[in-house]
Amino acid sequence: MNITKLVVVMVCASLALTSCGRSSKSSANVTTVSTGQQLTDLKTAYDAGAMTEKEYEAKRQELLKG
Predict the structure, then answer these.
(1) What are the residue boundaries of the structural domains of the chain, listed by start?
(2) DSSP string of 4-55?
(3) Using N-to-C axis directions, what is the helix angle for 53-65 and 35-47, rounded to 10°?
(4) Is the dihedral of CA 57, 62, 65, 66 positive or negative?
(5) Residue 28 near residue 49, CB atoms below 8 Å
(6) Residue 1 · residue 25 · CB < 8 Å
(7) E strands along 1-41, which residues?
(8) Quick check: 45 and 52 in contact, CB under 8 A?
(9) What is the tens place of the pLDDT at every residue in 35-64?
(10) 0.70 exceeded by the pTM?
């Protein structure tokens, strides 16, 4: 009988502890990149051949307009 009570207490304690520290809150990290950095990255991609000159110019103008 004492062992049964001990097992029940241990199970209840472990269930209670598994819920400790859990939170329903979530957070998001937002990183803002400057226009200058975006233009630099765009130029790097263009120089690497990842886009055509037409694509590069279109995206560049888009970034400059804001």
Answers:
(1) 32-66
(2) HHHHHHHHHHHHHHHTTT--S----------HHHHHHHHHHHHHTTSS-HHH
(3) 180
(4) negative
(5) no
(6) no
(7) none
(8) no
(9) 999 999 999 999 999 999 999 999 999 999
(10) no
User: Tokens 């097992």 appear where?
Assistant: 7
Contact assessment for residue 59 and residue 43, using Cβ atoms and an 8 Å cutoff: no
How much is the pLDDT for 59?
97
Structure tokens at 8: 């029940």
Q: Is the dihedral of CA 15, 20, 26, 31 positive or negative?
A: negative
Taking Cα atoms as reference points, which of 62, 22, 20 lies closest to residue 39?
62
Helix %, strand %, coil % of the chain (to 5) = 65, 0, 35
